[in-house]
Amino acid sequence: MNEAWADRWWKEEGIFSVDASQSYAILLAGLFAIAAGLVGSVALMKRMVLASDVISHLALPGLGLAFLLKGNPLAGGGATLFLGTLLVWQLQKKTELATDASIGVVFAACLGIGALVTPQEDMLEALFGNFQKLSLAGFLLGVAAVILVVAFIAAMKDRLILDLFSHDLAAATGVKVAYLDLGFLLVFSLTILVGLRFMGALLSSALIIIPAATARQLTGRMAQFVVTATAVSLVSVTVGFLISTLILKTSTVGPTIVIVSVLLFVMSLAKKK
Predict the structure, then answer these.
(1) What's the whole-model pTM score?
(2) Which of 130, 185, 199, 211, CA to CA, is 20 to 30 A from 256?
(3) What is the Rg, in whole angstroms, of the alpha carbon atoms belonging to the chain?
(4) Which domain holds residue 85?
């Protein structure tokens, strides 16, 4: 009897009672955490952490239109996310506005349009995401996006560090700073896009902001900082997913992941004292 009960729990209630499509979603969430940790580390040093919260909202108009027209939400969200990112870059170049100011202008427009076109019944999913099954094609696209993000950070790390040290010095040594900024903004947005499925437009930036801030409290060394931010991001996703799935039994995992990451940040403050 006990063996039969255990077998039924394993198949119906256990954490490993997932099919291939659910496994793809779980794996991609973990890969998103890795990309978010890396990008968040650079964003914190570039003083763009708060800007990341705004950039994620650039996807709202596309998400809303996709829901309204019964299209692919990620395709719609990605389109406006990258168009908004390019617009931010152009504003920054041609108007000499700071990145935060440029993002703020585009953000206000996107938020208004997104709220206007998103159907009421889909608003919750657009803002907070939904942990749904994932096709093999969707998984492979997500993996390719994460690989692109990691490859960019690895290939450009020396230029990014030089630019962090001195914008003018980087330009003087031949670094095309404007295109370096564009490249980082694009991989930043690509990371947000990977997380939209799980975290929604409102929360997908949380794994860029909070783990990096937590790691900054724990270490001042560059290499350790990046590794720690990535580890904190992974732990937040894993623990948040387990709590949502096994305890709360909800497909909306974003809020739980954010709460876990905030708790880790609070713990890092206590340790620093």
Answers:
(1) 0.81
(2) 185
(3) 19
(4) 20-205
